[in-house]
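tool_call: predict_structure(chain=1)
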Amino acid sequence: DITGGLLGTRVSMLLQPLGDAWLGLVPLSGVADQAVGPLEALAERRGIQYLDLREGTADLLAGFFAETLDKLLVAALVIVLALALALRSLARIGLVLLPIVVALVWTFTLLILIQGSVNLFHLISLLLIAGLAVDYSLFLNRPTTDEADRLRTLLSVSVGAGASFAMFSFLALSAIPALQAIGLAVTLGILCAYVLSLLLARAGPVG
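tool_result:
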């Protein structure tokens, strides 16, 4: 009877068919800590499932946080192995890896100083920062044949870094917390990675 109206839209979010029965959601607000125990006891007696969304969300994010941290370590190992296979020189591997590692450490430190802690979106952003830092470091440290080649490389990397910096700077101004966290982290990471890669770039032509 109410399908299609405003009330129907609201009810459809709280009442869903489940096989031969119906699943109903009853949202609660303003629940004090001392009321949680009685609510859980009431739910158990009545065959109702009581969901603490705050606790459930916190547990879910904690799991994602731990999983992302593990993947960060795996990604770091893969990057090191790929660079070792491609460069085949400890000196060149160290020269390429140094700005990447320092940029990630600086970004992580700046995030803690600015926001007091790091969250899941910051960790995910570190994966993107690592990828961008690899590009900057590899290109700016690649062997070049002459000064014109070096300048072309510098211009290409600078344009790419500038465009990425501008895009993620806009995200950092977003009112949506997730986008703001990603934008801030990647903006800081791009700045650190580009400056460090530039400072540690080869001083003379090699080719």
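agent: Residues 44 and 146 are 77 Å apart (CA to CA). Proceeding to next step.
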